[in-house]
Write a structure and sequence with these properties.
This protein is of the alpha/beta class and 306 residues long. It is built from 12 helices and 10 strands. Helix content is 40%, strand content 15%. Strands 3-4-5-6-7-8-9-10 form an 8-stranded parallel beta barrel, surrounded by 7 helices. The structure holds 3-methyl-2-oxobutanoic acid (KIV).
Length: 306
């Protein structure tokens, strides 16, 4: 390879050298400097471009796409191939943010070798820069890290464990559970995880883990003391058709905006108000004239009045 410049902790985007690419070491540096990390999910080119251009630091192609994009009841059914398809689209839309792909249920729950093979696909075939895996899978995190694949851990309310948890419930509410999640967090950091998502746990527990670890924590329903925050894009803009969770602040009502636009369009079509003459293509005047003359000369062949 050829390294042409060394701009500091992060490299310029190969697509645009004026953009400084967000990397795992750059996020660790943000934690050291006390700068909050912003993260959002995205699943397609259009929204990932918006998210990236707004300066969000990390874009997660979450397996939540099973629910918010594919309309499934939970995250369990989405496949590796479906996640790869969406990760490729997001990759094309992002120039600055770190692109993380969620490993779906079943893709790392068997052997470590299977987990590594699937993780390699996200890096090689879809351009992800890190993978996220749920639960304290310490051995797998160590092997992935040795294989040069950055890993984001995910502890607390891990949606792929919905059946074991008996629903989506806040976790780490007993002293034993608090000790366990803290031990798991330390073990993931020690195994090489570059970041840790903390979901659905009491604020106090997230604060303690955040203070103890040197890697950044990214919270979702884990209070304001994490090093960063992540939300599901569709929750944030009211497109998820789900009851609003306590932590999921709505920043816009895209459903209302889109519904009004769609209804307006339907009315315009029904009233022949769309498209207008200005929104139509026209024949060159010479061709139009010639066609009218032909039609007048041969009235029986005339099909349309021009
Ligand atoms: O899939 C997802 O969207 C996630 C976030 C909630 C962290 O895992």
């Amino acid at each position: 390879m050829s390294i042409t410049n060394f701009p500091g902790s992060a490299s310029p985007s190969p697509l645009d050298p004026s953009i400084t690419k967000v990397t795992i070491p750059a996020l660790a540096e943000m934690k050291r400097q006390g700068k909050p990390i912003s993260a959002l999910t995205a699943y397609d080119y259009a929204t990932s471009r918006l998210v990236d251009e707004a300066g969000i630091d990390m874009v997660l192609v979450g397996d939540s796409l099973a629910m918010v994009v594919m309309g499934q009841e939970n995250t369990l059914a989405v496949t590796v191939d479906e996640m790869l398809h969406h990760t490729r689209a997001v990759r094309r839309g992002v120039r600055r943010a770190l692109v993380v792909a969620d490993m779906p249920f079943g893709s790392y729950h068997g052997t470590v070798a299977d987990g590594v093979a699937n993780a390699v696909r996200f890096i090689k075939e879809a351009g992800a820069e890190a993978v996220k895996i749920e639960g304290p899978r310490v051995a797998l995190v160590r092997v992935l890290t040795d294989a040069e694949i950055p890993v984001i851990g995910h502890l607390g309310l891990t949606p792929q464990s919905v059946h074991r948890m008996g629903g989506y419930r806040v976790q780490a509410k007993t002293t034993d559970a608090v000790q366990q999640i803290k031990a798991d967090a330390r073990a993931l950091e020690e195994a090489g995880a570059g970041l840790l998502v903390l979901e659905g746990i009491p604020r106090e527990v997230a604060a303690e883990i955040t203070a103890e670890l040197t890697i950044p924590t990214i919270g979702i329903g884990a209070g304001p003391d994490c090093d960063g925050q992540i939300l599901v894009f569709h929750d944030m803009v009211n497109l998820s058709y789900a009851p609003k969770a306590k932590f999921a602040r709505r920043y816009a009502d895209a459903a209302a905006l889109f519904r009004a636009a769609i209804e307006h369009y339907r009315e315009d079509v029904e009233h022949r108000a769309f498209p207008s003459d200005e929104e139509s293509y026209h024949l060159p005047s010479a061709v139009k004239k010639q066609l009218s003359e032909d039609a007048e000369a041969h009235p029986k062949q005339r099909l349309h009045k021009i």
